[in-house]
Specification:
Elements (H helix, E strand, L loop, with lengths): L11 E10 L15 E8 L6 E3 L5 H4 L12 H17 L7 E5 L7 H6 L3 E5 L3 H9 L4 E2 L5 H11 L2 E7 L8 H11 E12 L1 H7 L11 E2 L2 H9 L3 E9 L5 E8 L7 H13 L4 H27 L4 E4 L4 H9 L9 E3 L16 E3 H6 L4 E4 L5 H7 L1 H5 L3 E4 L5 E2 L1
Bound molecules: S-adenosyl-L-homocysteine and thymidine-5'-diphosphate (TYD).
Length: about 400
């Protein structure tokens, strides 16, 4: 039995997705023969309640000089991070000349607002291509992986931080004890860590199994986050659900006793008990729902193919790598995937090698059906694609249920 990355006890595997390529491993034809694969399996630790991958590729394999995810591509997420930044400025930057550190700052989607306000800031971003984009916007960025050692260096150079921020990155880091220890050293006595990630209860509720892929080593609940930071003399003082990435949770963490604890924390813990997040059976039920979703999706795709309908994918998300490889979606089922990210265009999807094409291809020759892989941006996309819909185009979605809209 594999050991839990957080508390060292045994992890119970509940789902095996099989052989899987890197979620963001878009590739050229010349790279097909030496593509990297690993086994995508996920398990639950009944001691500390952390849901986690049982195997993860080395970090340098995922985060490097051609990292495909560029945060500012989504206007909805740009708005979200603007509002996140202003919440921090209004609520937590009280002392004079404050310092804000962001872990996984990508192209500076959030830090640009602190930079514009003249607030001292530092981004920590190991993927050099996106770190450079932030640098070009005047955002101070150190191109390294955050851990306890780097936290000490930052503290030595800049002093302690008033706020440490992280979005969609804590769940990527297997060495979370080093990260938490570093945060605890880097924060001022009254400093706060505020981070958000996809929330386990939402993943279970809407069967968004595509959130499970190499980069996401952890699937947080409040109870597992509380356990982790408790080990490092910190506690969750507040939470706030977020309507992004299919349902996320924002956690505010501080040193034990530094602040009062919001009643929302206790209420959410009770809710998690009722949802069965601490019971093995909950995860077995999830596996059954995932298997059902796969069968329905493939039945529909086959039916569309038999009717001669043109189906294309919309949004070459890293999440879709799990769906395509687990379900067996090939270029036989979908012609190509449309995506607005220039680093993905002209490449092929990991594992199934479906071409990723420029968005203009989609606009110039609408398909009959678009399989919405970027379902988490569904509202933004459907508002944008009125012409496709008005011309009779249909959406095929698989979250929360497989259906044609
Ligand atoms: N915060 C952004 C980016 C999320 S993608 C957003 O929400 O849009 C995750 C980012 O974390 C990537 O840019 C990746 O390079 C970075 N990352 C991965 N491991 C990291 C680590 N140990 N320390 C800091 N950043 C890391
Ligand atoms: P996203 O779901 O945010 O992330 P992940 O890769 O972590 O699963 O990625 C959205 C993808 O969809 C990204 O490659 C950009 C693309 N996209 C479009 O092509 N058009 C759009 O209108 C939007 C919002 C996204």
């Amino acid at each position: 039995m594999q050991k839990c990355l957080i508390c060292d006890s045994g992890v119970n595997e509940f789902m095996d997705f099989g052989r899987m390529p890197l979620g963001n491993g878009f590739l050229d034809q010349s790279q097909f023969t030496d593509e990297y694969f690993y086994n995508l399996k996920v398990g639950f630790c009944s001691r500390c309640t952390m849901v986690q991958l049982l195997e993860q590729p080395a970090r340098e394999q995922m985060f490097h000089d051609h990292y495909a995810y560029i945060s500012s591509i989504s206007s909805r997420m740009s708005e979200h991070f603007k509002s996140f930044a202003h919440t921090i400025m209004d609520k937590y930057l009280i002392e004079p000349d404050p310092l804000v550190v962001e872990i996984g700052s990508n192209d500076g989607i959030m830090l640009q607002h602190f930079a514009a306000a003249g607030i001292r800031h530092l981004g920590v971003e190991p993927s050099t291509n996106v770190a450079k984009l932030a640098g070009a916007k005047g955002i101070e960025t150190v191109c390294e992986f955050f851990d306890e050692r780097l936290a000490e260096t930052i503290k030595g150079n800049k002093g302690q931080a008033d706020a440490i921020l992280a979005a969609n990155v804590m769940c990527h880091i297997p060495y979370l004890h080093s990260v938490a220890a570093g945060i605890s050293r880097l924060l001022k006595p009254k400093g706060v860590l505020i981070f958000e990630d996809p929330y386990l209860a939402d993943i279970l509720e809407i069967t968004s199994y595509d959130q499970i892929y190499d980069e996401h080593v952890f699937y947080f609940s409040l109870s597992s986050v509380q356990y982790l930071f408790g080990v490092h003399g910190m506690e969750v003082i507040d939470i706030m659900p977020q309507n992004v990435h299919g349902g996320s949770m924002r956690y505010t963490v501080a040193r034990k006793g530094a602040f009062g604890i919001s009643p929302d924390v206790g209420e959410q813990l009770l809710k998690e008990e009722h949802l069965g997040l601490k019971r093995d059976t909950t995860y077995h039920h999830f596996r059954e729902k995932v298997e059902m979703s796969k069968n329905r999706l493939m039945t529909l795709l086959l039916a569309l193919r038999n009717k001669g309908r043109r189906v294309v994918g919309y949004g070459a998300t890293s999440k879709s790598t799990t769906v395509m490889n687990y379900c067996g979606i090939t270029p036989d089922h979908i012609e190509y995937i449309s995506d607005t990210t220039h680093t993905k265009q002209g490449k092929f999807t990991p594992g199934m090698h479906i071409p990723v094409k420029h968005y203009k291809e989609f606009c110039e020759h609408y398909p009959d059906v678009a399989l919405l892989f970027a379902w988490n941006h569904g509202e933004e996309i459907m508002n944008k694609e009125k012409m496709f819909q008005d011309g009779g185009g249909r959406w095929l979605v698989y979250v929360p249920q497989v259906k044609i809209l």
